[in-house]
Design goal:
Elements lengths: L1 H11 L10 H22 L5 H8 L5 H26 L1 H21 L3 H29 L2 H32 L3 H4 L1 H15 L13 H20 L9 H23 L13 H30 L5 H4 L3 H21 L4 H17 L8 H29 L5 H40 L11 H4 L9 H33 L17 H4 L9 H16 L3 H11 L5 H13 L1 E3 H8 L3 H14 L2 E4 L2 E4 L1 H19 L11 H13 L14
Antiparallel strand pairs: 1-3, 2-3
Length: 677
């Protein structure tokens, strides 16, 4: 309750939408991190539960849809939540998204058959999209411009952790009961619901949005039709059946209607001009292939490890070699791109390396040793990790400012759709191959009397009860079906490597040097940010990187013709911000003693920038004019990162530079230039 009162008071003391401070802010940010963690977790947590779910619900042919339904719903509703939040306020919509997510989670836990589970997973995905998009948007409104880069990094790392821990936690909860994979969301989600309702201030400043409802619906309909064709074609229905033809017609008509809608819409969800820009098309195509490979490996490898190798769900979720390699490659590759400014080689080499790892995985069977398996996992993980973030950098680096936001969200959208399409299509391949293998075993006459061979495809646990030789045949049937999937993924990775040859590499913009965003680089979750929001996050990270550095203050002093030591410049900016402050308070903020800071304050007094009045330090007109020169110099330095986008001609960028230039001189305590050092 103390945090609630502090948050309300803090917000009341500032204009609508102003940054918050204090313990109330930390409580809110903690809850937002929890909400985003839950939304991201449910993309991957079910991967290690699928064999157990298939055994209980008897629906192995629809197993891929447990993942696909969540991903499709999340992808379709991500831009809608973002735009509605800007237009109608984020608090109530965030509460609604939590309620939808909790309802979907509860219903998933109570599902009695596979169609129910798939439908409820889609509902859960609708809410999950709101959790991920709105939590980030609320965070940016709560913290100061200077702090946004830091917290954006924390939120990105949090989302990356949710994707990494998903399979492991899924395996843990299966040991208790697979329904707890969904039930665990309920107490955590209710906690988030209560805190957000009581502590988060209500939005009082909205921005009208042009929402492309028709475009979102038509694009979603075309996508669902294509995924259903990939799932059912040649398996449940012949390719020439009326159902497949109807789905194909639906996909074509929806696509044409979307094209007509996008031509008329003021702010289409995917502007048509992006599809004529090589700078976007190539990264988007590579991202699609990346999504196919990444999520199929995430789904079918735990299936292999549980069914064929006999690992427990918990052990099959610990794909640590692949995860560790992906993290190292993503972080390391991002830093190398930032340092050297070259990025084309990463998607080419990364996807080629992933293809080599997939070929090795395609030779893994029930007798394969751990060294072979781990080596293949490292190759795949390292290859995929080297590509994920670089594709976004390539698109952002080459498009004009107006397309920066939609290019970023477009690349992650294609990656997400690739994941959904790949899981569905390769799920159909897996089911068809497994059914054929089991039919051959049954035709050979080695199945015990009364054993329904086809039921083994839906319930792998039945295989455990078979006699040794027959059980070996069935395990080989599962192994061969998964091998087929993995081997067909290798050409997809090679196609991505060939496509990456066409990536248009141009000199790296200043913003691209902000480094990788772990949130964008994790999983297949789409993002939604406007061009201004994209610039704000990256520019904030760049400002944070050199904020408080002695060299920065010395450079600003030279540009602004201010001849003061860094400690004095910092003190002057703080006194200007406060208007009047005591020496003790100023020393506390600088984390030094009053005695150590006094020489720097004395220089300000002698220069006429500050006066002492009634035991307090007050800024003078000359001091305020000097601080404004420092702010202007800082703004010009930050504007260099926006070269080519004419920030002086764009009101939103000029305002952003003004905010950051003032805010970045009041640096966090751990980076502050301390007087006397």
């Amino acid at each position: 309750m103390d945090a609630e009162r502090e948050a309300a008071v803090t917000y009341a003391e500032h204009p609508a939408g102003a940054p918050m401070r204090g313990r109330g802010l930390h409580v809110l940010l903690g809850v937002l991190l929890l909400a985003m963690f839950l939304g991201g977790l449910d993309q991957t947590i079910v991967s290690t539960t699928l064999p157990t779910v298939a055994a209980e619900l008897h629906g192995a042919e629809n197993l891929a849809w447990v993942v696909t339904a969540y991903m499709l719903a999340s992808t379709a509703f991500t831009p809608l939540w973002g735009k509605l939040g800007d237009q109608y306020g984020r608090k109530n919509l965030f509460l609604l998204s939590i309620v939808i997510f909790l309802a979907g989670s509860a219903l998933c836990g109570m599902a009695r058959n596979m169609p129910q589970l798939v439908a409820f997973r889609a509902l859960q995905g609708v809410g999950g999209a709101g959790l991920m998009v709105l939590s980030t948007a609320i965070m940016t409104a709560l913290v100061s411009p200077r702090e946004r880069g830091r917290y954006q990094g924390i939120f990105g790392a949090n989302f990356a952790a949710s994707n990494v821990l998903g399979p492991l936690l899924g395996g843990f909860f299966v040991e208790v009961g697979w329904r707890w994979v969904f039930y665990i969301n309920l107490p955590l989600g209710v906690l988030a619901l209560i805190v957000i309702h009581r502590v988060l201030p209500r939005d009082t400043r909205y921005r009208r949005q042009e929402i492309d409802y028709a475009g979102m619906a038509l694009l979603g309909a075309a996508t669902v039709c294509l995924v259903l064709i990939a799932t059912w074609g040649g398996t449940r229905y012949p390719w020439t059946s009326p159902v497949i033809w109807a789905l194909a017609a639906g996909a074509v008509l929806s696509g044409l209607a979307w094209y007509a809608s996008a031509r008329r819409a003021r702010e289409p969800v995917l502007p048509l001009r992006l599809f004529t820009a090589r700078a976007f098309l190539v990264p988007a195509a590579v991202a699609f292939c990346l999504g196919v490979v990444m999520f199929c490996v995430m789904i079918y490898l735990p299936l292999f490890m549980q069914v064929v190798k006999g690992y427990s769900p918990l052990a099959s979720g610990m794909l640590l070699p692949a995860v560790a390699a992906a993290v190292v490659a993503s972080v390391g590759g991002g830093r190398l791109v930032t340092r050297y400014g070259r990025y084309k080689a990463y998607p080419i080499g990364g996807m080629a390396l992933a293809a080599a790892g997939l070929l090795l995985l395609g030779r893994v069977d029930r007798d394969t040793g751990g060294l072979h398996l781990n080596a293949a996992l490292v190759l795949v993980g390292f290859g995929l990790g080297a590509v994920v973030q670089v594709l976004i950098t390539a698109a952002q680096n080459a498009v004009p400012y107006r397309d920066l936001g939609v290019a970023t969200s477009g690349v992650t959208w294609f990656r997400s759709i690739g994941g959904a399409f790949g899981v569905a299509a390769f799920g159909a391949l897996y089911n068809a191959r497994l059914a054929g293998n089991i039919d051959r075993i049954a035709a050979g006459g080695g199945v015990p009397p009364g054993f329904a061979a086809q039921e083994a495809a839906e319930d792998p646990e039945l295989v455990e009860a078979l006699p040794g030789p027959v059980r070996t045949q069935f395990l080989d049937a599962f192994s061969e079906a998964i091998q087929t999937v993995v081997l067909w993924l290798a050409p997809v990775a090679l196609v991505a490597a060939l496509l990456a040859l066409a990536v248009h590499e141009v000199p790296l913009r200043g913003l691209a040097r902000a480094g990788p965003d772990l949130g964008e680089g994790a999983g297949a979750a789409p993002t939604f940010r406007s061009s201004r929001q994209e610039v704000a996050g990256r520019l904030s990270r760049l400002a944070l990187r050199d904020a408080g550095a002695r060299e920065m203050y010395m450079l600003l002093g030279a540009i602004a013709d201010v001849h003061l030591p860094p400690g004095s410049m910092w003190a002057l900016s703080r006194i200007a911000e406060e208007g009047s402050v005591s020496s003790a308070e100023l020393a506390r903020q600088a984390e030094v003693s009053v005695e150590r800071g006094r020489p720097y304050v004395e220089q300000l007094v002698r220069a006429g920038y500050v006066v002492r009045r009634d035991g307090r330090l007050e800024i003078t007109d000359a001091g305020r004019a000097t601080v404004e020169r420092l702010y202007e110099a800082r703004g010009r330095a930050l504007a260099l990162h926006l070269a080519g986008w004419a920030p002086e001609e764009r009101r939103e960028l000029a305002a952003l530079l003004s905010d950051l230039s003032r805010d970045s001189l009041d640096v966090p305590a751990d980076l502050r230039v301390r007087a006397g050092r």
